[in-house]
Specification:
With 245 residues, this protein is an alpha/beta fold. The chain has nine helices and nine strands. It is globular and about 55 Å long.
Length: 245
């Protein structure tokens, strides 16, 4: 199946060359789509230079920094229009190990609509995180799963692969959230259309180069999105209860 790895970037010049080389080594036949939000450090230009050497690397340039969700919506749409059958999401900061890509892709090839590289299933780990951040992430995922009825341990995970037919059925273009909220809403929509979700353990390593994009606003947005989705699905919950589901 044709695979495109979609990587949003903003000021990732210190990571982008290593990322592209490791992705190409791990999945030689995959396309790489870099979605760059006008990085002032030249990330987009550097990715294009690497693309001339390695091949099958495309840089989608956006005029300004407009958020993770917007970058993924643009990247996923471009990948699908170019013929991708599986779209992989991963971060540019090397927190997601490219060596995991074959397993992530294999799960979708073997029937999963969404395969999640999960920190919170047995065997999953986070490294170099302070205790407070680890607790916030863990309990945020439990909160999302409990409120929305998701049988998913890591709904905020950014390392994931989708079958593109599932992305179209869940109307991913209309997901408005950004940050962690984007990942939660994407997971929620996939579950609500009856998609199959598979989680398998990964080791998440915090970035060693560049600056984290994490902020209090991103966390707050995710909490608000969960409540909004719960309210919006009031009628759906009633119908499912009436059907015994």
């Amino acid at each position: 199946m044709r695979v495109t790895v979609v990587v949003p970037t903003y000021n990732e010049a210190g990571n982008i060359e290593r990322l592209c080389r490791e992705v190409r080594q791990s999945v030689p036949d995959a396309n790489i789509l870099i979605v760059d939000d006008a990085s002032p450090d030249g990330t987009g230009q550097l990715a294009e230079q690497i693309g001339h050497e390695l091949g099958r690397i495309r840089v989608l340039r956006r005029p300004t920094k407009a958020g993770l969700g917007a970058a993924y919506r643009a990247g996923l749409r471009t990948a699908i229009d170019d013929g991708a059958e599986i779209c992989v999401q991963m971060d540019a900061d090397l927190s997601h190990d490219p060596k995991v890509l074959p397993a992530l892709i294999a799960n979708t090839e073997n029937g999963a609509d969404l395969a999640i590289g999960s920190r919170y299933v047995p065997g999953g780990l986070t490294e170099n995180w302070p205790r407070r951040r680890r607790a916030l992430s863990r309990w945020g995922n439990r909160y999302a799963a409990g409120v929305l009825g998701l049988a998913v341990n890591d709904a905020t995970a950014g390392y994931r692969a989708y079958r593109t037919d599932a992305l179209e059925r869940m109307k991913f273009d209309t997901v408005a959230a950004e940050g962690y909220g984007f990942q939660v809403e994407m997971t929620y929509r996939l579950v609500r259309i009856g998609g199959k979700v598979v989680e398998f353990p990964i080791t998440f390593r915090d970035r060693t180069a560049g600056t984290s994009k994490m902020s209090g606003g991103i966390v707050r947005e995710a909490l608000v999105i969960v409540i909004k989705l719960w309210v919006d699905d009031f009628g759906g919950r009633r119908r499912r209860r009436a059907k015994g589901g």
